[in-house]
Amino acid sequence: MKFPGKAFYIKALSCALFGIGLLHGATSYAAVSQTPLSLTIGVPPNILLTLDESGSMSWGFVPDSIENDVISGTSITRFYAASAFNAMYYNPKTKYIIPPFFNESGAEVQLSTQFTNAPINGFRPGDGSLDLSDYYRPTGKEYRMPTGSHNRLNGPINDFRTTITFSSNTTKKQTSAAGIEFEVTRSGSSLNRTYTCKILQSGPVLDASNFSCTRNNDEYIARTPAYYYSFDSTLSSCNNSKSNINCYKLTFVENEEKQNFAIWYSFYRTRALSTLSATSMAFAQLSPAVRLGWQNLSLCRAEWRQHRKL
Fold this sequence. Notes:
By secondary structure, the protein is α+β, with helices and mostly antiparallel strands. The protein has seven helices and 14 strands. The strands form six sheets. A three-stranded antiparallel β-sheet has the order 6-11-10. It has a three-stranded antiparallel β-sheet with strand order 7-8-9, with no helix packed on it. Strands 1-14 form a two-stranded parallel sheet. A hairpin with a 2-residue loop joins strand 2 and strand 3. The longest helix is centred in the first third of the chain and has 25 residues, at 6-30.
């Protein structure tokens, strides 16, 4: 039998080596990368923001379950104005920041607020403003953005009111449950009787210059600058429970915190304002390459119901 020559074996070996090289290359190309495409190519992210514009977003308290604890008719309770109970209300330990704002052209607009001229809606200063040093009343349950009536509530009844009766012309003093001291003077005759009421510098009132009071029969109501309640376990009848209304002390906003309170009022006092402020601060840090879309909750649900019918 005749065997192949040396040249045959050299040629066969060369072909085998070439085939192994091709197989190795094909295996390399077929390998699946274990690195996410976004980390290697840098795909711009897409963000879809859904805004909840339901009625509860206009409320100044959280959660919904505390409504009966913080609102009583046309007045608030101490719980409403205490951040230890209602996390939406002003907290003197928090540094509030005016959020960044951009117009439709993308140019940044500097928003502002002041204690004596605080916009009801810091993002829409043209909607009106209030002097927080003059007859402050917290926002009630309903304040719909961007339009709608600004419902405001009176302070806790027993803290801002007192009853004084007269049988003759004299001056009497009476202190409310929160320590506000009223001084009322009756003068004149039965045909021309006058009652002069004023708030004294005493207790929580460190400066009475912006305080006044009104009369309704024998009831006198204090009109005061902005205020809040602080949890104080040392108060009489307090059992160190945040659910005990007797554990909260009335504090009127002092000079050094007036600007901080004004920022809270204009940009954070309701669920909607707080959400917009937080979103504005977060999105201001994003790259211009980020693609952003937005929708409101009711429109989103309406479109979903419409598509469902199709």
